[in-house]
Amino acid sequence: MRGRITGIKTYADPVLVGDLMQGGTVGEVVESNHPKFFVGDFVVGMWGWQEYTVSDGKGVQKLNPHLAPVSTALGVLGMPGMTAFFGFLEICHPKSGETVVVSGAAGAVGSLVGQIAKIKGCRVVGIAGGDDKVDFIVNELGFDGGFNYKTTDNYIAKLKELCPNGIDCYFDNVGGAITDAVFPLLNLYARVSVCGQISQYNLAKPEPGPRLLTYILVKQARVEGFIVIRWMDRWSEGIVQMAQWLREGHIKYREDIVHGFENIPAAFIAMLNGKNTGKMLIQA
Ligand SMILES: NC(=O)c1ccc[n+]([C@@H]2O[C@H](COP(=O)([O-])OP(=O)(O)OC[C@H]3O[C@@H](n4cnc5c(N)ncnc54)[C@H](OP(=O)(O)O)[C@@H]3O)[C@@H](O)[C@H]2O)c1
C-alpha cells in the first residue's frame, strides 16, 4: 500500500491522488442478483478503502464464519498468512535445528513466520520495535529469543549472543540497518527471503548502506525476493495447513482493530510507525 502511493509502478499499479486506495476487505453482502452470493454472506476481496462496492463475483471468496472469525481472511488465513507460509517455506526451506531470524517479528507476517519456523523445529530469534513486542513473541508465541532494535545499540553483538551457531535462514521484513547486521552472521548455504523493506518505504532518498555481496559470496548464501501472488494457484493448500495449525494450537495470532472508517488513514500511518502488534485491521 505504501509503495502504491509513491505514484511509481512496482509490482502493482500506482494509486494516484483521487484514486481509490487499494486493500483487502471483508464485507457482508447487502444486496445480490448473483446466483452464488446471498444477502448476509460474508466475503473477502480487493475492494479498497470504501464502505460499499458492486461486484460481478469475480475474485470474490465466500467465508464461513463458523470455521474462523471472518477477520482472519485478512490476516492469518489471508494474504499475510500466505506471505508467511509460502515466503518462508518455499524460499528458506528450513531444517530442524537451524537458526532462523525474523525482522518485523511482531507484525502480521513476521509473527506467523516465527511460529512456522518453530513448527519446523528451528531456533527462532525475532527483532521488533518494543519491549512489549519482544515479550509477545517470546512469551506468547514461543520464539527462543528476541530484541528491541529501538533500544539496542549493537545489533551484531546482540545477534551473536542470541544466535551462537550463526544464522541459517533470515526472513526480512524491514531491510536497512537490521538486515545489514544479519548478513555477517549468515552460515554456509544460508537462505534469505526478502519479503519487505519497510525501513526504506518512507525515505525521501535511499540510504547508501554497506556492500553485503561479499557475505553472500563467501557463505554461498541465496537471497531471493518474492511477491506472495507468485503462489496464488497454491493458496488453498496454504490456507488448509494454516487453519490446521491454528486449530491444533501451534499458531496464535493477534489483531489490532481500529474502529471507524474515517480512522483508516491514521491507522495506516500508525502501522507504518509500529503502533500495531499483529495484523492492523479497520472495522468500519
Ligand atoms: N512480498 C510480499 O508479497 C509481501 C506481502 C505482504 C507484506 N509484505 C511486507 O512484509 C512486511 C510486513 O508487513 P505486515 O503487513 O506484516 O506489516 P506489520 O509487520 O504488521 O506492520 C509493519 C511493522 O513494520 C515495523 N517497522 C516500521 N518501520 C520500521 C523500521 N524503520 N525498521 C524496522 N521495522 C519497522 C513496525 O514494527 P516495529 O515496532 O517492530 O518497528 C510495524 O509494526 C512489510 O515490509 C510489507 O511490505 C510483503
Shape: globular
> pLDDT under 50 segments (min length 5)?
none
- Helical/strand content category: alpha/beta
Bound molecules: NADP nicotinamide-adenine-dinucleotide phosphate
Helix fraction bin: 25-40%
Terminal residue distance: 18 Å
- What is the ordering of alpha helices and beta strands? EEEHEHEHEHEHEHEHEHE
Radius of gyration, in angstroms, nearest whole number: 19 Å
Largest β-sheet summary: 6 strands, parallel
Biggest sheet: strand arrangement: 6-5-4-7-8-9
The tally of helices reads 8
Q: Could you report the average pLDDT, rounded to the nearest whole number?
A: 96
What is this structure, in a nutshell?
With 284 residues, the protein is α/β, with parallel strands linked by helices. The protein contains 8 helices and 11 strands.
Structure overview:
This protein is α/β, with parallel strands linked by helices and 284 residues long. It has 8 helices and 11 strands. The strands form 3 sheets. The chain has a 6-stranded parallel β-sheet with strand order 6-5-4-7-8-9, sandwiched between helices. Strands 1-2-3 form a 3-stranded antiparallel β-sheet, with no helix packed on it. It has a two-stranded parallel ribbon with strand order 10-11. Bound molecules: NADP nicotinamide-adenine-dinucleotide phosphate. NADP nicotinamide-adenine-dinucleotide phosphate binds next to helix 1, helix 2 and helix 8.
